[in-house]
Write a structure and sequence with these properties.
19 helices; mainly alpha; Growth Hormone, Chain: A
Length: 435
Amino acid sequence: MTSSVRDTATSPSPAASASSVPTLRQAFQQPRAVWAIAFAATVSFMGIGLVDPILPAISTQLDASPSQAMLLFTSYLFVTAIAMFFTSWFASKVGVKRTLLIGLALVVLFAALASTAGSVGEIIGLRAGWGLGNALFISTALAAIVGATAGPSGGAIILYETALGIGLAVGPLLGGLLGTISWRAPFAGTAVLMGIGFLAIMLLLQKEATPARVSPLAALRALSNPALRTLALTAIFYNFGFFVLLAYSPFPLEAAAAARGTEFGALGLGGVFFGWGLALAITSVFLAPVLTRRIGLIPTLLTTLGLLTVLMLGLGLFHSSMAGMITLIIVGGLLLGVMNTALTETVMEATDLPRGVASSAYSGVRFLGGAVAPAVAGPLAAATTSGAPYLLGAGTLALAMVMLIIGRRHLGAVGTHHDLTEVEEAEAITAGDEA
């Protein structure tokens, strides 16, 4: 991407953005402030999959239907979607460090309150506050970690992407381990770890990027751009399928295990989604950049969407097979990692809009698709069959392909300047995986 379209609101200084090829030693020789942000980022990404293994336990112990339990994702993602339209403006008003601390404080508060909740309705409301905090933190963490590094930006970015991958993979596993104690324990554990991250950033982060002013309506206005609108519509249908797989799958997976006479439980679910998160992290960081450079962004998107459609059809057919579901969920992680990064890179290349503004607009729209999916999947399964949500997810993925094909004429700029800097590559990976 050319320097003329870089977002001064979120990009570090030119010196920090300079391309470099750091050694592994350089990557881990960072100031304490960088390590503090990396730790908080790890915990923040852990929170994405933390709830997944305990959804059936919450449903059983709080006398809630699966549909009600899955609304924990809906409230979280809906508020995240709305917040994403304004995070770049907010950071430009209060500064990067304050935005990080406010986001972390909100996660600590609402995660701690969730651990004491007495009903699923209370947790649903508290997860909304958690989503606001996570949106504020994740939207500014990369700018902060690059701004705090003492040397070339490449080393800090390697550390940041490592934190991202660890968080995505470990979150479901930690949720499963703590879930064997109580469904409350994962929420309490998140509050404690995020509290440590809050203190570390407050005490250690002094140097920070200076954001430029951004209009509060900039992200909403950005959707008038036809290229961005095309990709946002593609993403909203894609994210519906993504969150059918993530939020709904624990229920048919546990039912399939019960049909075999075994109890899967939080730990078993945590193990499966640990494999899912690890697969997603590996392909988003390592495989997606290779594919997009060899075959191009649009072909990568269309191919991956096609494979995901087939995979969702497979889940619809084999939803009663424990082995079949485990295999397809983990393979789904491989495909989702490629899709997330490739789609966000396409957003970064498709317009001349400032990167932060385009990312806020795109993320806000796509998270709405994720918010709708859990609210629809549960009632649909209850009214029809356990495989129906996957078949609907396959349909929305096919619609995502249609949106991309119809709007392809607006994406002429994609692929004309594909040499992303390390910072831009990391932003694509982060924005792709932050859901």
